[in-house]
């Protein structure tokens, strides 16, 4: 059973998400929070698999709450998905850098929300449906200047190549076609790269790809 915590200051939004998720097989809403402090408290109390976190909330905003959750070693298995009203929310890339596993716009299709919850539990990043690569380029362009990353020396040449392709938003299937390998092989390379760099998921791998200078803003392959 995938347990979800809903964090949004609008009760109607929470009610809609709860009704949708509770109707799905294998998913249950474990709790709700109306602000960031409550979200942090409930995350520690309930240990959900996924937190759907609104960016703009009172008391403690979603960005700060996400950072505290992902920095808490006791919540290592908790994945945070940011909820935003606009596709190009100025905080999204910073949220991913802070440890969020991805983001969704609030008016996303119901089936996409369900798919998203299942995906992050499996370790995938929500850097897609439709707007992915434009968003990556937009927020990477606002990120810090690339710094020398000694950690990249741990990677093989193929792993660096795979990391760069993850960085421009390619899925495992797309990477497999680009490199003429099987999807399983592509997934294995991605997983090994994440382990070597200590990345929580694909979202952090994308951030590392930009911050290390392995991928530059505007390069969309």
N-to-C series of helices and strands: EHEHEHEHEHHHHHH
Characterize the largest beta sheet: strand count, sense, and whether it forms a barrel.
5 strands, parallel
Round the mean pLDDT to the nearest integer and report it: 82
Portion in beta strands: 5-15%
Radius of gyration: 17 Å
Uncertain regions: pLDDT < 50 for 5+ in a row? none
Structural class: alpha/beta
Given the C-alpha coordinates, what overall shape results? globular
Question: How many helical elements?
Answer: 10
Beta strands, count: 5
Oligomer: single chain
Q: Roughly how many Å apart are the termini?
A: 38 Å
Q: Could you give the order of strands across the largest sheet? A: 2-1-3-4-5
In helices, the fraction of residues equals 40-55%
Overview of the structural elements:
It comes from Streptomyces neyagawaensis. This is Response regulator transcription factor. Residues 3-121 form the Response regulatory domain. The modification 4-aspartylphosphate is found at residue 54. This protein is α/β, with parallel strands linked by helices and 221 residues long. The chain contains ten helices and five strands. Strand 4, helix 4 (92-97) and strand 5 form a beta-alpha-beta unit. The protein starts with a strand and ends in a 10-residue tail after the last helix. The mean pLDDT is 82.
């Amino acid at each position: 059973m995938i347990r979800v915590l809903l964090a949004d200051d609008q009760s109607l939004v929470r009610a809609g998400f709860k009704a949708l998720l509770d109707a799905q097989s294998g998913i249950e809403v474990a709790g709700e929070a109306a602000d960031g402090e409550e979200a942090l408290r409930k995350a520690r109390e309930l240990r959900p698999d996924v937190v759907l976190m609104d960016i703009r909330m009172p008391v403690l905003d979603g960005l700060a709450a996400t950072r505290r959750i992902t920095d808490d070693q006791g919540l290592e298995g908790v994945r945070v998905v940011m909820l935003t009203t606009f596709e190009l929310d100025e905080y999204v890339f910073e949220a991913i850098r802070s440890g969020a596993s991805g983001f969704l716009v609030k008016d996303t299709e119901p089936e996409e929300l369900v798919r998203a919850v299942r995906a992050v539990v499996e370790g995938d990043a929500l850097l897609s449906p439709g707007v992915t690569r434009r968003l990556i380029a937009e927020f990477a362009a606002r990120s810090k200047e690339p710094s020398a990353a000694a950690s990249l020396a741990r990677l093989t040449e193929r792993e660096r190549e795979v990391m760069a392709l993850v960085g421009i938003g390619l899925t495992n299937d797309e990477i497999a076609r680009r490199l003429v390998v099987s999807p399983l092989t592509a997934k294995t390379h991605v997983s090994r790269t994440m382990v070597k760099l200590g990345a929580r998921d694909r979202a952090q791998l994308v951030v590392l790809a930009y911050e290390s200078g392995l991928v530059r803003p505007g390069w969309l392959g």
